[in-house]
């Protein structure tokens, strides 16, 4: 049997357990991708429900997933973004995401100013909280490892983090406020940041 992303498969219980390609929400098991449904009866008498992806299908964000997003609009209450990748997998068609003011950080939420947290075009790491309205996803950056990972200056130059709340242009030395992600310095991170920067400059 085939299914599509977001399709409800069955109730989640002690008997039916969510496996690969699925997620649990509101007491039900849903498919997180397009593919075929596989039912596996285990030795403990539990039934494992999995979805095997068909070639050429797209994955969807699920609660708890870390996503890479691009900020597309900002207002005092929230910012809208386009989801570019889920974990390490790029998406074929971007999904819509929303980061609300109260989900930016875990402390002093009432003092958050969205215009001093993100700017249009920023590449941000966020975590999926839940599915919102109109097939958009509520996201959070309220963890040290989440936040802005790539920001460009007004001249299009990649900016360097100087603290958890500021980035600086290496040419003009102008600083701008941001909610900066704490990332381990690694070749993988550098490569990902470089790729995101190239995408930003082309758009």
From TrEMBL:
One of its GO terms (molecular function) is RNA binding. Keywords: Cytoplasm, Exosome. Residues 2-39 form the Exosome complex component N-terminal domain. Signal peptide: none annotated. It holds the Pfam family ECR1_N. CDD domains: S1_CSL4. Residues 93-131 form the Exosome complex component CSL4 C-terminal domain. It is found in: Nucleus, Nucleolus. One of its GO terms (biological process) is RNA processing. GO terms for cellular component: cytoplasm; nuclear exosome (RNase complex); nucleolus. SUPFAM superfamilies: Nucleic acid-binding proteins, Ribosomal L27 protein-like. This is 3-5 exoribonuclease. It comes from Ornithodoros erraticus.
């Amino acid at each position: 049997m085939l299914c599509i992303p977001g399709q409800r498969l069955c109730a989640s219980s002690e008997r039916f357990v969510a496996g690969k390609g699925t997620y649990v929400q509101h007491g039900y098991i849903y498919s997180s991708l397009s593919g075929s449904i596989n039912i596996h009866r285990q030795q403990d008498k539990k039934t494992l429900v999995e979805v095997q992806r068909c070639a050429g299908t797209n994955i969807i964000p699920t609660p708890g997933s870390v996503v890479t997003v691009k900020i597309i609009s900002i207002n005092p209450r929230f910012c809208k973004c386009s989801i570019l990748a889920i974990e390490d997998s790029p998406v074929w068609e971007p999904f819509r995401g929303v980061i609300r003011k109260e989900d930016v950080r875990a402390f002093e939420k009432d003092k958050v100013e969205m215009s001093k947290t993100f700017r249009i075009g920023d590449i941000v790491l966020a975590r999926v909280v839940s599915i919102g309205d109109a097939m958009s996803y509520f996201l959070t950056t309220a963890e040290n490892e989440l936040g802005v990972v790539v920001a460009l200056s007004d001249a299009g130059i990649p900016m360097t983090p100087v603290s958890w709340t500021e980035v600086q242009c290496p040419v003009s030395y102008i600083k701008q406020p941001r909610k900066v992600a704490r990332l381990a310095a690694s070749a993988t991170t550098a490569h990902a940041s470089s790729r995101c920067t190239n995408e930003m400059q082309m758009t």
